[in-house]
Amino acid sequence: MATGALLLGNLALAQSATTSILSSTLTSEAICALDDQLLSISVGGQSRGDAVVKVKMSGERFFIESRIIQPSEAKYVLSRTECEEGVFLELDPRLNPKFDPLKQALQLQPVLELLANNTVDFRRDQQIVPTVTQPSIGLDFGIQASEGFSKTFSTTAQGYVGAGYASGALATYVGGFASFSSDDTSVSQFSAAPRATLRYSVNSRLELTAAYNAPPDQLRFRNGLQHFQGVRIDARSDAQLFFPEIDLQLPLDADIQVNVNGRELRAFRASAGTLKLINIPFQGFGASVDVIINDGTDARVNNYTYFADARTLRPGAYVVGVQAGLLNGQRSLNAQGIVGLGHSVTMSSSANLLDNNYDAAAALDYIDDFNTANARVNIRGSSQKPLDASLNLRYGRVVNEHFNVSVAATIPVAQPENLNLQANASYQLNRWSYTSGGRYEFGQQTLSLNGTAKYTFVSGQTIDYGASGSYDFRNKALNLNANANYTFVSGQTISFGVGKSPQGWQTSLSTNLTPLPKLKVGAYVAATSLPTLQVIPALNLSYQPNSQNTLSARVNTNAASASYVYDGRVRASLSASSSLTNLSSASVSGSLAGALSLNNEHLTLSQELGSRSILVKTGVAGIPLQINGVQAGVTDSQGNVLLSRLPSDEYVTVRVDVDTLPFNINVQNDRATLRIPSNGTAVLDWRGNITVSRYIQFFWKPGEPATYGTLRVGDLAYPLDDEGNGLIGSVPDGTPATLKSDDGNRSCPVILRNAQDKITCQP
User: Fold this and answer.
1) Which residues does 303 contact at the CB level (< 8 Å), separation at least 6?
2) In principle, which of 124, 316, 568, 733 could form an S-S bond with 548, CB 3.0–4.6 Å?
3) How far apart are CA 295 and CA 45, in angstroms?
4) pTM of the predicted model, to two decimals?
5) What is the 3-state secondary structure (H, E, C) of 142-178?
6) CATH number of 611-691
7) What is the CA radius of gyration of the chain?
8) Whose CA is closest to 230, among 217, 239, 241, 243?
9) Which domain of life is it from (predicted)?
10) Neighbour tally for 629: CB within 10 Å
11) Beta strand pairing status for 612-617 and 680-685?
12) Tens digits of per-residue pLDDT, 155-175?
């Protein structure tokens, strides 16, 4: 009853305020005759610029230029008046206008209840770009070698080669792996073995895989042989899982970017009001969603972490994987799965068998907006060892928006008196955040405590302190540690730590700085009394001139090393290291890995083969592309690139990294969302979407530049500078155009040639 009375009272007050203002009705002529003031207007802290406002001081009434109000704020408007100067609006008094005559400013506060509710459905609203799917055919290769120099020389090398084919429901890979090693004291050793996989996609919910000397859960592999021979079955009730609904309160129009596991899923402009995000897709057993909101006042990040709980797995939904075979000659069985039981409960389990050793786990999870509860049973044993079982219990509670607590217990079934108890709490208030925790192990008679405090400055810099300690009652041993970290807005850090144990003490100071945009410097120095007093300095340098090349070096009192990594169309690395205490001990190593894929009778070089890939055709060389916000490749000299390092998502977004493009490259659509085929290559034809402009100098006649003229190509007009130069868009060779003077009294026809950077009027 009290709540209902309060709501009715608030409604009555709002209606009374509106009625009192409207009761003193002004005619249109009276409103237009009010004094004009040029005021700086802001809504919710967002500047709307300077605007003319008609002010009636006696009633504190304001009539604002209509351009100040966004379309999403239409319900803010009480009345509309047309004057000679334009249209003026009177706004709802619930916007609580605050007029500052000294600063000549008018501040308005958003009212969410007057704004619309909007929904973005990531499943329904996806604008999928149609693509052509081709078979994926290719050859991958790689080699890695190292040479060691000490009292004896040693050489090791390993390499692989293989061919892959993927189309429709079938994907297969056949290849071989070889290794070689030799040194001065032993006989050279050489080994080689074949490896292969075959995967058949029955449908989007069921996949069957057979593997020989290869991991059964992937079709690409490099580092050595995995001696597994067997089969695997993957099944799920739905090919796509979705996060629960996310509600956002947007007082202002804002740019929204949604990232899943750190990768951009979608970016869009949202109107002010309540925004619901539904059907955000993810793969596997859980992930993290970041929603970045930028409304012009600041950029904030809302993070949502979900496991595949009952809110993402509907009742009866499941994900299951089972594999069986021989691993290193021993029987191997592995299974894991999760199923939604409904009522906010899920059940998950896993089991592993390797020869005579086994382990298994089963868990029940409950989760809602304020509570989480988990019960898990683990067992482990073998034919030679007795069964070892434990019960894990955990409960967490969101007390309010500032305070969280959790408690947990681990109970050995055979010796319940040796249980472990743990408790944690976190508290956040304004710019301070605190965490604390404790653990007591009854079997070891050890008590551990820890705590942290973090302060975030207005500028975004942070400073945090931490301390931890443990006491072993049985051995009367005390361990203490403390640290402090300062993080700049740019991500650069300075850290200090100190520790004390029964064996001695140690302290450290480190920093991670970026003195130049492409240079990172890390410095570290530690002093310790273990076992004797010594000081250990270290220096790390990393220089990355672009996204494909990285040079790094590291040196400390014991050793020095340097390396170069190329992460472009292929992946290559070269490194060298040497001991500073024994200069005769050194090593050099290098590696190269890549793949050749056949598409449309053209070979494309890439880092690796994949049963699923995207061939992007732009017609322009050197275009950097991203997959879900992660750098994925750069187009070759023909303007093509094969993107094979794809996430497991059903849909991906291919995006041009426009921030790194030269100024003369124009992009019409910088992104496209595609549905990746189960097997094969999706072809995205972006030819014509990306164009290159170039400078051309125009002359009326030899030696007379067309100063400040204009070049007209169809409906397009390109201005020229004081020397007749103009940045001209990409056009077909031989395109006719017209050159005109700035006063319009002179013109002539010209023909644009791709091979010419100087063009003169035709006679």
Assistant:
1) 288, 289, 290, 291
2) 568
3) 10
4) 0.65
5) EEEEEEEECCCEEEEEEEEEEEEEEECCEEEEEEEEE
6) 2.60.40.2610
7) 34
8) 217
9) Bacteria
10) 19
11) parallel
12) 888 888 888 888 888 888 898
Beta strand spans in 706-746 (E):
710-713, 716-719, 725-728, 735-740
Second-level CATH architecture of 693-760: Sandwich (2.60)
Domain 28-114's class?
A: alpha beta
Other CB atoms within a 10 A radius of the CB of residue 45 amount to 14
> How does DSSP classify residue 245?
P
N-terminal to C-terminal alpha carbon distance within the chain:
92
Q: pLDDT of 416-468, one tens digit each?
A: 989 999 999 999 988 899 999 999 999 888 999 999 999 988 777 889 999 99
Output 27-35 pairs: Cβ under 8 A, ≥24 positions apart.
28/81, 28/82, 28/83, 31/63, 31/81, 31/83, 31/88, 32/81, 32/83, 32/84, 32/85, 32/88, 34/63
Q: Which of 128, 236, 42, 10 is nearest to 682 (CA)?
A: 128
Task: Please report, for the chain, the start and end positions of each structural domain, with discontinuous segments joined by +.
Answer: 28-114, 240-306, 611-691, 693-760
Strand pairing class (46-56; 228-236): unpaired
- Residue 209, classed as helix, strand or coil, is strand
Question: Do 611-691 and 693-760 agree at the fold level?
Answer: yes
What 3-state DSSP class applies to 423?
Answer: strand
- By three-state DSSP, how is residue 583 classified? coil
- % helix, strand, coil for the chain, step of 5: 5, 65, 30
Q: Which residue has the tokens 């989760």?
A: 367
Fold of 240-306: Immunoglobulin-like (2.60.40)
